[in-house]
Amino acid sequence: MRTIHSVITAGGLLLLCSSNAFIAPANASRQTKIFSRSALPNVRQKETTKAPSKHASFTKLAAAAEGIPEESSGSKWRRRIQSLIPEPQERKKLLPLAIMFFFIIFNYTILRDTKDVLLVTAPKSGAEVIPFIKTYVNLPVAIGFATLYVKLTEWFDHKNIFYVCVAPFLTFFTLFATVLYPMRDVLHPHVFIDAVASQLPLGFAAPLAIVRNWSFSMFYVLAEMWGSVVASLLFWGFANEITTVDEAKKYYPLFGLGANVALILAGQYNKWVSRQRLSFGPEVDAWGMSLRFLMGAVLASGGIIVGCYKHIQDNVVPTLQSTKDAAKAAASSPPSKERKRMTMRESFDFLRNSPYIRNLAVLVISYGLAINIVEVSWKSKLKQAFPDPNSYSSFMGNFSSATGVVTLVMMLVGRVIFQKFGWRTAAMITPTVLGATGLGFFGLSIFRDALAPITAALGTTPLMLAVLLGAVQNIACKASKYSLFDPCKEMAYIPLDKDSKTKGKAAIDVAGMPLGKGGGALLQQILIFGLGSLEASTPVLAVVLAAVVYFWLRSARSLADQFDAAMSSDSK
């Protein structure tokens, strides 16, 4: 029997799974509990790893007295490096998995940067469109996919779901660059929307822009879904099924390093494409040619991803299925036809009644809500500073590369935080960073006139300073998310039973983040209609951000207590 184990793990973005070094695999049945406190290198390490003490010094003295040579620092480093090199049997699956993850994140970075350029700089569009598309398009699509995915697991063999989900993405992105974008003037109903807009208040310009530029809106939604579906759902669900706890502890950090290298390279590729646009003549659609370069890279990367997955399924998975754990799981599991499946409504009811899952959902929704409140305001100022798609795309390329570099550093720092301070402290850092930097960004926007002499002394303008501060805010938040928030979230799934993992991850990871971003978008829509613009809404958004961060921190503290209790009971 084929069962569905932990089909969704994050995080993603992005890049989302860069620090999933601490994700324990989900290939153990309830009858074979392999998760214990020892499986988590970052949970209460003081209980399992003792700090150097007098006893350590005594041991060294005793060894010297017996003539046993002390290991040199060079030998220690060589031993550590050798421990990071997989065994030949491990390399068969870890190398293609690492390549898959590298190109998934490479694609996600290109798509994420391109979707903003397309939609924000589209005709009669702007950053004000983002709240509306997240609420009325992204959120329904995410919830609909979560429902569809449950059905796909019933209709298709588990290994074929990957192909069924990835193929539509690659097909659309290819068609967009070669057909939809070149024919945009014919396909987009500008005349009809202009006629409708003339009969409606000015506040409807943003939602009408979604329909006006409908192919750009589709690109935006599918680019967002690539991170949730392909990275979080498909890749990490597959990786956790075929990877053991010991392998995850040793090699998942290397996956994260590769992912951030992909982030840097994708940003530089985007910047290179932006420079190529400058060499095109005036008769050439420069942005259209750039899209072909970008989507060509996405399609080529997608081919490598699918090829690696097929290689693992054909040559690695059959050898894993003969292990003792697989045999035990098969022997202890009931026939699939006798298994009672929960409906989607029953799944959400089940999750709503679980305080543990509810706290975990609050963490995910709070992040989506808070980052959306700040990010949309920042992108509004970004368009004012870079109205041309060329310069906008080049800036986003530098932004992605900087995010990759900072995240690499944060991964090293994050590992120390987990080991020294544990899950609770690590879970508190992301909301603290987001709240502090977000309120700083809003403060600069609110008091820009009072700060004008200071910005002039710095040789810049309030607008450019706000753009740079917003970029720093986004980079810091994404780096802390990938290095701390995502592994905290994934670790929290470990003590859950099989149904909670499967249904919980489908509801939280796929629908939770869009729900948070959709909630932030709905709030921004109300403020735009009520106050006239995002800029006029800044003081209210600052207050809402402070409230969201407060409830986020409170839920993180509560979940930390529940997580420690659950891990203690599992270890007994």
Can you put this structure into words, describing what you see?
The chain is mostly helical. The chain has 2 domains: 87-325, Growth Hormone, Chain: A; 343-571, Up-down Bundle (Growth Hormone, Chain: A), CATH 1.20.1250. Helix content is 76%, strand content 0%. The chain has helices spanning 54-65, 73-84, 88-120, 129-155, 161-180, 184-187, 190-197, 205-212, 214-242, 245-277, 286-315, 317-320, 324-332, 344-352, 355-385, 389-446, 452-457, 462-492, 498-531, 538-571. Helix 3 (88-120) packs parallel to helix 10, helix 15 packs antiparallel against helix 18 (462-492) and helix 15 (355-385) packs antiparallel against helix 20 (538-571). The longest helix has 58 residues, at 389-446. Its main location: membrane.
**Low-confidence runs:** 1-66, 324-342
Class derived from helix and strand content? mainly alpha
| Average pLDDT for all residues | 74
How far do the termini sit from each other? 30 Å
Overall helicity: over 70%
Family: Belongs to the ADP/ATP translocase tlc family.
GO molecular function: ATP binding; ATP:ADP antiporter activity
Membrane topology: Multi-pass membrane protein
Keywords: ATP-binding, Membrane, Nucleotide-binding, Signal, Transmembrane, Transmembrane helix, Transport
